[in-house]
Amino acid sequence: MGSVDTSNRTWSESPSWDIPAVEYPKASEAPFPTQQSELKATAEVFLETLNRIFENKDYSRLQHLMNIESSFWRDHLCINDRKFQTLSGAKEVISLIEEGGCAIENITLDREPKAASIDLAGSIKCIQSFIAIRTKIGTGKGLLKLIQDVNDGNRWKIYTIYTGLWELDCFPETSVTGIQRPSHSTPEDLHRDKNWQDYTEEKHKCLDEEPAVLIVGAGHCGMMTATRLGILGVKTLVIDTQKRTGDSWRTRYRHLCLHDGCWMNQMPYLNYPPNWPVYCPKDKMGDFLESYASIMELNIWNSTSVAESTWDDEGKRWTVVLESNRDGKIVKTTFHPRHIIQSTGLNGAPRIPDFHGMDDFEGAIIHSSGFYGATDTYTGKNVIVIGSGNSAHDIAYDICKHGAKVTMVQRGTTFVKTASSNLRDVSSLYNEHTPINDSDITLVSSPIPVAKRFGYDLGAVSVKLDEPTLSGLTKAGFSLPKGPDYPHVLVLGSQRGGGFYVDIGCSQLIAEGNIKVKQGQEIRHFTKNSIVFADGSEVEADEIILATGYTGVRQRTRQIFGDAVADKVDPIWGFDQQGEQRGVWRRSGHPGFWVATGNFWLGRHYSRLLSLQIKAIESGISEL
C-alpha cells in the first residue's frame, strides 16, 4: 500500500440537527405603503411600541408584535450577552426573556427603511430596515422585517428580527479608529532611542507582558480574531506550525482557487485592491494574509506548537508550554493566558475509510490532503478518486488534464452548482457597492428555517439556469439531488461542511466522458491493482486518491489539548436545535476555551462577536 496513514480510519461526531425549512406566511392583500414617508412612519410607530415594552419590561405584550403564523428573533449577545440564539414565535421569545432577562433597552431605525419582499417571487411584501440597538453593555446593529399579519387584521408584525452586539461602552471600536485613530504608532513613554521597528519587535517577543489570549492557528479566522482583539486592546499571541504566515493556503494542491467571489472573502479593515481577481488562487491568498499580518501588526509565532496545556479552574487561567523551532533549535516558552482560541480549521485529521484489502493494493493510496498537484507523470495512469465533493472534483480535473484515465466513485448524490450561478446567488449582497457590514448583517439576519426556504427558491432557479451542465452530468451517470427542494451551498456548508461542488470545469470533463463515474455502488474490496464493487464490476487503478473528508474539529482539540479539554467541549459545527452554529465563536463548554473556524464571511462577522465576548470578560462586564 502507498503512503496513506490508516490510524484515522474511524470517525465519530455528533450529527447536526436537521432544521426544517419554514413555509412562507400568507401574503396580505391589504394596501402596501408606496411612499418613503409611509414606510418610515410605519416602522417608527412599530418601534415606539416595541420600546415601550422594553421600558416597562412588559414582555408578555410581545405576543402582539410578532407574526402569528411564523416569526423569528435571532439574537447574538444583545438579549443575553452570553448566548447566540434563534427563537421561533412570540411564546418562545417571551419564555426566554422572562426566564433569563433582557439586556436590550431600545431599538431605533439606523437608516431609512425600504420596501422589500421575503420571497424570491416578490409576492410577500415587507418593510425592511437596518436597526440600531442599545443594550446595558453597549450598542448593536441588526435588521428588521415587518409584514402584515393576515391572521390579525393585517397589523404590522415582526417576521424576522436580528439583533447583534457591535460595540462595548467600555471600549468602543470607534474610539481608536477613523477620526479617533492614534496620532503615532508607538506609545508616548517609549524610550527615546527606540523606534517603531524596535517597539514591534519587542511586542512580537511578548517581553512587555504576557498575552491574555493565545490563538492556535494563523489562518484567516485566527488572524481576523487577532486583529479585532488587537483593536480592542487585548494582548494576543497567534501561533502556527507552518514556517511562514499564509502557508496554510500555499501548501494546498497547486490549482486550488477560492470558489466564492472576492467580495464575499474580504478581511476586516483591509479590502482587496480593485483589480483583485474574482476567484483568488491559493498562493495569492497566502501572500495577502502574510501582508495582512504585517499591516495589522499581528504577533504571530511561526513554527510553533502547543507542547503542554493545563487549565487552572481556581486561578481562571491556562499554563501553556510552547515549542518553537528557531533555526533548528527547539525553544520552550511558558505563558499563562486567560483564553485559548483554537483556530486550526474546520477539519480534523484525514478521514480514511477502512476498505477490505487496502493493504493488498500495490499502487499508491493517498488522501486528498496529501495531494499537491498533478504532473506529467500521471499521463496514461489509471486513477480512481473516491469521493465527489469539491476536492474530489478539483483533483480529478487536475489529473485528467495531465493525461490520466480517471474514475470518480460517487456513493450518494452531490449538489452541483456552476460558479456563475453560485456568484449570482449572492451578487445582490456581495458586490462592488454594498458595504460589507451591511452584507454580513443581511445574510446572518435570516434564521436557518427561513434561509433554507429561500435557498430552495434559489436552488430551483439555479437548476434551470444550470440545466445544460446538470443534464450532461446526469447522462454521464452522475447522481444529482431530486427536486423540488434543492439545497443551497451556504446552508450545506454550515450544516455539513460539504456535500456540494461549485463547478469550475470538472463537470464538462465528466459530461464528455473524459472522467468516468462509478455511481451508487459500495466498494467490496481492493485487489493488488483494482477496486471491486458490490455489483461485481472491477476498475483497474495505478493510484487511488481518497477524497473522503476529515474527522471532526474536536479530534484536533483532543490531539492538541488532550482529553480533559476535548471531553468538555460542545460538538463543533453543524446546527444546534435552534439552527445556530454549534460550538464556534461562543462559549465552548470549557471555561477559557473558544473555537474560531469557518469560511471568510463567517469569520469576518463572528470574529467581532467572539472578540466582544472576550473583551467583556477581560473588562469585568461578563463572567467567564
Helix content: 25-40%
Q: Main β-sheet, in a few words?
A: 7 strands, mixed
Globally, the shape reads: globular
Mean pLDDT: 94
Give the total of beta strands.
Answer: 25
The poorly predicted ranges are 5-12
CATH H-level superfamily of the largest domain? FAD/NAD(P)-binding domain
Structural class: alpha/beta
Pfam family, one: Pyr_redox_3
InterPro entries: Auxin_biosynth/cation_transpt (IPR050982), FAD/NAD-bd_sf (IPR036188)
Keywords: Oxidoreductase
GO molecular function, one term: flavin adenine dinucleotide binding
Mind explaining what this structure looks like?
This is FAD/NAD(P)-binding domain-containing protein. Keywords: Oxidoreductase. GO terms for molecular function: flavin adenine dinucleotide binding; monooxygenase activity. Pfam families: Pyr_redox_3. There is one protein chain. By secondary structure, the chain is of the alpha/beta class. The protein folds into three domains: 36-168, Roll (Nuclear Transport Factor 2, Chain: A); 195-348 and 552-619, FAD/NAD(P)-binding domain (3-Layer(bba) Sandwich); 358-549, 3-Layer(bba) Sandwich (FAD/NAD(P)-binding domain), CATH 3.50.50.60. 28% of the residues lie in helices and 23% in strands. It is built from 16 helices and 25 strands. Strands 1, 2, 3, 4, 5, 6 and 7 form a seven-stranded mixed β-sheet that branches. A five-stranded parallel β-sheet has the order 10-9-8-14-25, with helices on one face. A five-stranded parallel β-sheet has the order 15-24-16-17-20. β6 (138-149) and β7 (155-168) form a beta hairpin. The longest helix has 21 residues, at 36-56.
